[in-house]
Amino acid sequence: MAWVYLVVAGVLEVVWAYFMKLSDGFSKPGPAVITIVAMIFSFGLLALAMRSLPLGTAYTIWTGIGAVGAFVVGIVVLGEAATPMRLLAAGLIVSGLVLMKVSTPA
């Protein structure tokens, strides 16, 4: 169950990052509230996952899902550049996440 908590926490990290961008520096109340609520749930689920997963694994996976997810949302939703170097960098992050998962028991 810890891995499920961790993946959902990572997805919520993408949600709060996206809505933080939409909040325009917290000047727009709707996106700002969504940002804060998603942050709270993301941190809460990360904390639950850390009950049984090692700190290094849990935090690395959480931030990696957030980083790659925000990168994808930036390209798909916000029209950011998908250059070969940026795609390679995201691929390296994903390969690191896979290696972290494979090397962690449970």
Automatic annotation (TrEMBL):
Q: Which domain of life is it from?
A: Bacteria
A GO term for molecular function:
transmembrane transporter activity
Q: How does it sit in the membrane?
A: Multi-pass membrane protein
Q: Which PANTHER family match?
A: GUANIDINIUM EXPORTER (PTHR30561:SF0), SMR FAMILY PROTON-DEPENDENT DRUG EFFLUX TRANSPORTER SUGE (PTHR30561)
Tell me the compartments it is located in.
Answer: Cell membrane
GO cellular component term of the entry, any = plasma membrane
Keywords of the record, alphabetical order, are: Cell membrane, Membrane, Transmembrane, Transmembrane helix, Transport
Q: Record the organism.
A: Alteraurantiacibacter buctensis
**Transmembrane region(s):** 33-50, 57-79, 85-102
Q: What is the lineage of its organism?
A: Bacteria, Pseudomonadati, Pseudomonadota, Alphaproteobacteria, Sphingomonadales
Which InterPro entries does the protein's record reference? EmrE-like (IPR037185), Small_drug/metabolite_transptr (IPR000390), Small_multidrug_res (IPR045324)
Q: What is this protein called?
A: Guanidinium exporter
Q: Does the keyword Metal-binding apply?
A: no
- Stated family: Belongs to the drug/metabolite transporter (DMT) superfamily. Small multidrug resistance (SMR) (TC 2.A.7.1) family. Gdx/SugE subfamily.
Claim: Membrane is one of the keywords in the record: yes
Q: Which GO terms describe its biological process?
A: xenobiotic detoxification by transmembrane export across the plasma membrane
